[in-house]
Specification:
Layout (H helix, E strand, L loop, with lengths): L15 E7 L9 E10 L3 E10 L7 E7 L6 E7 L8 E4 L4 E4 L3 E3 L8 E4 H18 L3 H18 L5 E7 L5 E3 L4 E3 L1
Antiparallel strand pairs: 1-2, 2-3, 3-4, 5-10, 5-12, 6-9, 6-11, 7-8, 7-10
Bound molecules: zinc ion.
């Protein structure tokens, strides 16, 4: 059998470095751990992953981001999701990227937004968690019912029983949906 590109491990482990006991910019204690890792992502290139974690329990500051070695300029990716297999499609999201799924939900960019590498299922699970929080905080029955329906829909999508469109936009070009099915535009 031929060894196709799809059979390869999608993300290779690269080098990484850790700095412990750094000054936290929020609580000003030396409880911050800085991590930097390098990954080579096929069809995308070299990625740097940065994270800051404060181990002061009263602070718990966390920030993570991804950056590409070469800037690609603003990008927009659109992909149709219609099978269980599509859950594995890799998604690189920087803190400046937003992900939208029409009629379902979104992950917005912003100061509180983190960068990460995940897959379509990971994005859906993050949106599901947001909707679960809305459901639990809902004061009226109608709002609660609406949230419950969205959760049901997400579960069906994860099982490959419903079609959706996922749109990722990043003004800094540090993000991607890595799939032959994904359409890239500026
Ligand atoms: Zn702190």
């Amino acid at each position: 059998m031929n060894n196709t590109m799809a059979d390869k491990e999608p993300v290779n482990a690269g080098s990484s470095s850790v700095l412990e006991g750094e000054m936290c910019p929020f609580c000003n204690k030396k409880t911050l751990t800085l991590r930097e890792a390098e990954r080579d992502v096929p069809y995308f290139g070299i990625l740097y992953i940065f994270s800051m974690d404060c181990y002061n329990e009263e602070c718990n500051y966390h920030k993570a981001d991804v950056e590409v070695a070469e800037s690609h300029g603003p990008v927009k990716y659109t992909v149709e999701i219609d099978s269980e297999e599509d859950m594995k499609i890799r998604v690189v999201k920087s803190s400046t990227a937003s992900i939208k799924i029409p009629h379902l939900g979104s992950i917005e960019s912003g100061d509180a937004s983190n960068g990460y590498i995940t897959n379509v299922e990971g994005v859906l699970n993050r949106i599901k968690k947001q909707v679960e929080e809305i459901r639990d905080a809902a004061e009226d029955k109608a709002e609660q019912k609406k949230a419950k329906n969205v959760i049901k829909k997400i579960t069906k999508i994860i099982w490959g029983q419903e079609k959706i469109k996922m749109i990722l936009e990043d003004p800094n070009g540090n993000s991607a949906i890595i799939s032959e099915k994904a359409q890239k535009s500026k």
